[in-house]
RNA sequence: GGCGCCGUGGCCAAGUGGUAAGGCGGCAGACUGCAAAUCUGCUACUCGUCGGUUCGAUUCCGACCGGCGCCU
């Protein structure tokens, strides 16, 4: 397989990606590189469906437990680290296999982010704290003046656009445009070869079963012990379901409504993932599989072999 | 059997004699450093049924149907 082509297994949560990835990795001797913005956090295991010892023993995994729950991770950091994990796998003559549902991270690997202008950390954090207090409409108003191309986005993006414009004197949208032009001029380093795993309408059932399995596996106990040492505002808590399980552990919600709520949040997340995959990845390099379809193994094998020629 | 309360989109729910708030859910979408995040748009030609009053009723009156409560 050419050095510049990388196999990627993605799809909505609970679709069955990791099972397929594990089998494929065992068969072809691959190293799994997790592209999952929640599995990076140590201690958040059950609710993130993190691969356990039985998986990591048989196949090398990267991208898991690489950050403290209090750390703010990022797409660029993941892309940088993933690049070195890929190199490491290649050196070991193992095929790198990217597996995960965080589309933004995956895209950051194949379409590198521009270099962020340096912002004075102290000024930035006080500005960002202040912006967090402001109503959304206000941020939108500032942004429409400072960087109008970003004014339609959500609060997180508005804040960043405002911070960059104010502190670095650069419009994020300009930096983005420049980097796209530069990329067009240079040859791309890596090309994705996608396998999108999606069971379609059956995904709801998969999600329901997985949530029950997580609850039975001791998710509540895990959260109970995490609450002891991870501050409530730590980024890791943003994983869907964790806040609900925390309420459950605190006794402010009953088990059956918690379960229902977690299922809903997970379905909504899966829906956003599908929207992303529908619009943000290059359709030309995509093979779709339904893991419940009997001939899926043949499809997966064909997809892997195609990666050879790419 | 009698009396009372209630019946609004998949769910919860506001409301008025002048032609249906909001929330949840669902659907579609955006998104280059928090992305399992953060946001945007859409989602009841219709208010249990049938009559009546009225220029006009989801809103008033009556009957009926359904639910709940109390009484005998």
Would you write up a description of this structure?
The chain is of the alpha/beta class. Helices cover 54% and strands 9% of the residues. It is built from 13 helices and 6 strands. The chain has a 6-stranded parallel sheet with strand order 3-2-4-1-5-6, with helices on both faces. Helix 3 packs across helix 4. The chain starts with a strand and ends with a helix. The mean pLDDT is 93.
- Rg on CA atoms, Å: 21 Å
General form: globular
- Major β-sheet strand ordering: 3-2-4-1-5-6
* Tally of helical segments: 13
Order of helices and strands: EHEHEHEHHHHHEHHHHEH
Q: Which blocks of ≥5 consecutive residues have pLDDT under 50? A: none
**Mean model confidence by pLDDT:** 93
- Roughly how many Å apart are the termini? 7 Å
The class by helix and strand makeup works out as alpha/beta
**Would you count the extended β strands for me?**
6
Task: Chart the SSEs and their pairings.
Layout lengths: L4 E6 L6 H12 L1 E5 L18 H4 L4 E2 L12 H17 L3 E5 L3 H8 L10 H13 L2 H11 L8 H14 L3 H14 L5 E7 L5 H14 L2 H11 L12 H9 L4 H26 L5 E4 L6 H14 L1
Parallel strand pairs: 1-4, 1-5, 2-3, 2-4, 5-6
This protein binds one RNA strand of 72 nucleotides through helix 3, helix 4, helix 7, helix 8 and helix 12.
